[in-house]
Structure formats: structure tokens, C-alpha cells
Amino acid sequence: MNAAPPKSKNPLSLKERMKVPRQHMLEQPPLLRAVNFKEVNLGYSEELAQQEARRCLQCAKPACVNDCPVGVKVREFVELIVDGDYLGAAAKIREDNVLPAITGRVCPQEDHCEGGCLMGKKVQPLGIGYLERFVADFEQRHMDHSKIRRAVPSGKKVAIVGSGPSGLTAAGDLVQKGHEVHVFEALHELGGVLVYGIPEFRLPKQIIREQLDYMRAMGVQFETNVVVGKTVTINELMEEEGYDAVYIGTGAGLPIFMNIPGEHLNGVYSANEFLTRINLMHAYEFPHFDEPMLDFRGKDVAVIGGGNTALDSIRSALRLGARKAYVLYRRSEAEMPARREEVKHAKEEGIEFRVLTNPIEFLSDGKGWLGAVRCSRMELGEPDASGRRRPAPIEGSEFDLPLSVAVIAIGTSANPLIQSTTPGLRTNKKNYIEADPMTQRTSCKGVFAGGDIVTGSATVILAMGAGRRAAKSIHGYLTDDGSWSS
Amino acid sequence: MFKILHAEFIAPGIKRFTIDAPRIARKQKPGQFVIIRVYEEGERIPVTIERSDPTVGTINVVVQAAGKTTSLLNCLETGDSILDVVGPLGKPSHIEKFGTVVVMGGGVGTAMAYPTATALKDAGNHVISIVGARTKELVILEHELREVSDQLMITTDDGTYADKGFVTDKLKQLIQSGTRIDLVLAIGPIPMMRAVAETTRPRGIKTVVSLNPIMIDGTGMCGGCRVLVDGKSEFACVDGPEFDASRIDFSVLVQRNAMYRAAEQRSMEAFQRDRELLLQKVHTEQVACAAGGQR
């Protein structure tokens, strides 16, 4: 740990910084937020942000930067906050991350920047996500889009397939290099999983819209209602529409079902459908919006799975009026892949966690609707391929849990629309697209891929990391001699 | 936004729209559909493509008013716009020379059977078409189907036109008369497709039906349109919409399609009450959207 740079305006000594506790973000009280869809976290005030920023030790070798998949210059943007230059801090983040208001809200910071923070070894890590959100929100309120400078046109055209976090990141990086960037989206609204997957109470749609407006001001062009693979193929984009390169960032796509009896019963949903109805289609605002949702009031609901999607689903069900809301997870809480803050928030709201519990059959109420779920209790054995301890059913432990709705959130598999319509595009045995982990190049010349369609279900920030690497590599491909030998 | 270049009723409650959608027109094949969202607060519904013209970049869709969204859609006129049209979705019909093919259209399903019948005829098949409707006025595409069929039979439930009865009656007559049938394609209401499946299953006649379950994204992402095929879930939007009828569990299809009946009724009642107001809103949105130019 080196001494802080002398020019710093931080009045605290390193010792004093260690004594300041991590500043909590203001949030809606649990009982209130459990019945509305408004954002749970309310943000930092300027004062809280200042207090938090002053905790930063300004390490000489910042682990936070190394642990960030897009390499946000944490140390520098935090120091700009201390200086009171919030737009400067936002610009500093934007050098590496075009979606700061989004990552500031949904990134699993404990696995990346905050996980490596030196403060965390002794006390609590710096609230890097909270600070990122603070400057991003400040920027939304104060930034003049007309001041965004556009790069000199390169004369090259890039198609981005999918407007999720990976595609948007690649688009942002490429447009800043002067390339003409067109983003194609299959749905009617832009944002991919940010829009159909993540609920309003965690990531308000308005935030996404503002980030998209910023990208439009940067020069990125968007076209909705284009299903690449159906409406147009990759080859047609390159050969007929004149694109010099294509980045495929379509996400994982198909929901995985459990293949247990009773899955077709009314009231059994995939998390993708459940969340799409609520988020993309606004079913929670029925009848103001036309998309219908079942009446959840007084009903018992469970989600199956332990990731962020599972928690987003069950917390949505609670907000729709569910009487009891359960998380059924086959491993223990320690293995849950969800963000820690979401688990904490869910518990405060009254979600019941039934861990080491695995559904084996959905039981009918006799009229074609779900009536209960039969579960097995589980115990953990030796670690499996994922490094987590393998759950195994305890014999004779079956029990029935009465339920009206069950949401299956156990992951997704590869959507084959592009693979099956792009000759020569190599895929692995699970039908994910094969791409070089450093350059994101695929087996087709000029075609790059990244995010969940390459790696399988992961996080927003990992998809963004792939988008960044792809943009760098696409820029290299477009500005070099265009050769494809690696 | 997608401009409606022409709109006309072809039967009471059934309207044909010619929509400016060059990307879709270029790719559409028989058996495929589009998903439509009429306005900002609207739901996404799958709609039949009757035909497309790639040279001028238009598609024709045929819509029968049933619930709120289809009723609202049928209020739109030439010159109006539809907010979102996406496609072509689903697998195209499997077309080859089978021999003798019976193409059966029930009600508005006839509009989806028509392009496939045309393709089957072009592939060298002997095409026998059977069209059924509730009553005389609801018989659609008779002229068009006659042109591509070697034989056309028509039934009406109430006997007000052609022969009284159901399309399955005609199918049974064909079978009993010893006509060799290599393939049956049936598109229409679920009870009709189910009845066809029950007629052909015991006789081992290969039968294809086109299913229309509740759908949202239409790209395989949500899994809402899953149908039980030989006891396993398949998605109508990407694995279908056409399936081997003998493998379909029709009871599950009926049950899943009824999932939101209460909400659908509520929407429909509100629509009937506030029709004018809603239309005004749709038109305002169209103007705002055209001015904003973001779509």
C-alpha cells in the first residue's frame, strides 16, 4: 500500500480511511417495496458518495481494476469523485464501460472489483458499484448529449446482432473508432436481457432508455424487429447489405425445462416467459397494458433455482401479491450464484429460502392447473465439475408443497437460429458458437461472437467484457489488411 | 412502424392487410407467420401470412377478430400503421412431391393453408382442398384455392353454402371411396384439427397440423408456446408451427390456451366499452412515432 498521490484532495489519512464505515445506499423499506415495482435502491446523495469515495486507499496496484472484466479505471474515477468532478468521473468510466448506470446496478461487484478491494480484507470493501451508479446517474441528469464528439468516419460498416449488454458494449466501442454501427434486435424493444430479463425494481427501464439515447447520440443506429437467422441471415448482411464485419451477441436464448412430470400444467412457467411477460410486456400493469398475467393475490408461488434470474422471478411474484413466495434450491445457500445483495434484499422482503430442496414432480389440482410440487430433500457430497459440492437426494425424504405457480429458473441453452442458418459457423457440442476467447473470432471470416451465445449463461459484465474484446479485435481486422489468419 | 398499404374485409370479422415489410416479404415461405404488436401498450400475437410479394416488399396477413388485439387490429384501415411486425417466424412447411395431398382449412386457418396448398401443387402433387366455415359468409379464399387445387370441396356447419357438415365428413368420404391419400394438412380451430387427427390416426395417414398456441417472442426465448409432442415439450414458434398431428396432445393445447381466459374477457369488455378512445390513442401514437422517427 503506497501513500496517496500528493495532489489528492482527500483530507483523510490512510489510517483514517480504514475507520470510515462503508456507506449504505438508501433503499425503499422492505415492506413497502415488496408491494411495488419501483427501484429498491435509491442511490447515494452527494454527501454519501463523498464519504464513500474518501475511503479509497488509491492502491498502487489496484486489484479492483484487474478484476473488472472491462477494466474500469476505478482508482482514477473514485479520485475524480473526491475532487467533485462527477462528469469527469463518468467520462473516466466511459473509457472502458459504455453502460455505467447499468453495471452500477446489476454487476456482481463482490466477484469482481469489490472482491479484490484491499479494504475488504480488513473491513468492508469500497462501494465501487454504488459510486459507479452515483456518477452514472449524475451524468444522466447533467450531460449534454450535443457535446458528445463523434469520431472521423472510417468508411467501414459493422452489424451487431443483439442489443443486450454484449452487443451494446461492442457497438459503443466501435462507433468511437469511427465505424458505422448498426444494431439489430429481434424484439420490439432494445436492451435484450436488460429489458426482458431484469425487473424494474432492480434496473428501471428509464435508465436503459437513457443509456440508449446516449449511444444514439454517439452515432449508433438501431433496428428492432429483425430476427437474424430468420428476417435476414449473417451471409446476407455481409454479402448483400455491405457489412464488413458482424458481431453476434444474441445471448443464450432457450429456457431449460426440468423434464419432470407435470411441467405442461397451467401455472408452470419458464423464468424467461414469466419475466418477459412482466418486464418486456408490462403484465404487472394489466389492464393498462394488454399482456395478461395470472392473479397472484393470495396464491403460493415458488421459483426453482438459485441465480439472479430466480430471485428476480420470485421477487416479482411477491410484488404481484403472492401470499407465500419460496426459493427452492437443490444446493445450500453458500453455492447460490445470485448476487449477495439480491439474496439479502429478497430475505428482507419475506421470501422463504428452502435450500437443499429439489422438485421431482409437478402435481395437478385435477383441473389442469398446478396444485403442488413434490420435492426431495438433498444433501451435499463431493465437489462436481463446477467446483460446487454435488447435491444428492436423501432417500425417503419426499414431501409435497402446495403451490399455484412455479417458475423454473435453472438456466438456458443455445438458441440455434443463427448457427443453423450460417454455413461454416463452428459450434461446440452444446451448440454454442465457438469463438476465440481473446479475439472473439469465429470460424467465419469477418464474423465475431461473444457473451452467453459463446459461454452459456453468465453475467452482464462478462458479456460486456466479451463485447469489448470483440470491438478491439474487429477494429484491428477492419484497419489492418483484413486478413483472417490468427 | 409498418405501413398498411391496403386493408379490406374479406368476410364479416375477417380482414386482409397488405403491409409494407420488405425484409419479411423477401424471406417468407409457406407455413410461416409473423408476430404483430399494434400499439405501445399492446400484446404480441402470432398472425398468419397469406402471401407475400418480394418484388414490391409487401406481405398479406389475414386476421379474424376474436379477442381485444385482433378486434383492435381489424379497426385499422388503409394508411394506418402497425407498430411492430416481426418475422417470418417458424419453420416453413415441408414441401415435396408426396402424391395426393388433402389440404384442409377451417375458418381463418384457410388463409394459412392456401400458400402451402399452392407450394404443394407447384411441387407436382395432386391437391384436394377441403374448406370449411361456420356459415356461407365466412368461406374465404374459395376462388384462390380453386385455382391451385385439382379438386375443391366446401362445407358449412349450417348448410347455407355448398354441403352442410364438417370438413372431416368430406375427409371420411374420401377415405371410404378408396382415394389414396399420402398426406393431410389441416389448419383451423383446435377441435377441427383434433377431429382430423382422430380420423387419420387409426388409418395411418400422415397428417400435419399447424398450431397456434399463446406466444410472446416467437424466437424460442420464452417457452410459453410449448406443446406436448409424444410426451415431450416442443416450442411451436421454432420447432413448429407444423407438427405431426398423431403425436400432439390436444387436451394440453386446449388447456394451456385457456390459461388467461378471465383476463382476456376483461380486456375484450374494456375494448367494447372504450373502442373509440383506444383507437384515438393508437392513432396519436402513430403520429408521435412517425414524428419521432425512432422506429
Short characterization:
The complex is a heterodimer of chains A (486) and B (295). With 486 residues, chain A is of the alpha/beta class. Chain A has helices at residues 14-19, 30-33, 46-53, 63-66, 74-82, 86-94, 100-106, 113-116, 119-122, 128-142, 165-175, 193-196, 205-218, 234-239, 271-280, 308-319, 340-349, 452-455, 460-479, and strands spanning 26-27, 41-43, 157-161, 180-184, 221-223, 245-248, 253-255, 268-270, 300-304, 324-329, 352-355, 357-364, 370-383, 389-393, 399-402, 405-408, 412-414, 447-449.
Task: Give me the secondary-structure topology.
The complex is a heterodimer of chains A (486) and B (295).
Chain A: H1 14-19, E1 26-27, H2 30-33, E2 41-43, H3 46-53, H4 63-66, H5 74-82, H6 86-94, H7 100-106, H8 113-116, H9 119-122, H10 128-142, E3 157-161, H11 165-175, E4 180-184, H12 193-196, H13 205-218, E5 221-223, H14 234-239, E6 245-248, E7 253-255, E8 268-270, H15 271-280, E9 300-304, H16 308-319, E10 324-329, H17 340-349, E11 352-355, E12 357-364, E13 370-383, E14 389-393, E15 399-402, E16 405-408, E17 412-414, E18 447-449, H18 452-455, H19 460-479
Helix pairs in contact in A: 3-10, 5-6, 5-10, 6-10, 7-10, 11-19, 15-16, 16-17
Chain B: E1 2-11, E2 14-20, H1 22-27, E3 33-37, E4 45-53, E5 58-64, H2 68-73, E6 81-82, E7 84-89, E8 100-106, H3 110-122, E9 126-133, H4 142-148, E10 151-156, E11 163-164, H5 167-176, E12 183-187, H6 190-200, E13 207-210, E14 226-229, E15 232-235, E16 242-244, H7 250-257, H8 261-292
Parallel strand pairs in B: 8-9, 8-12, 9-10, 10-11, 12-13
Antiparallel strand pairs in B: 1-2, 1-6, 2-5, 3-4, 3-7, 4-5, 13-16, 14-15
Helix pairs in contact in B: 5-6
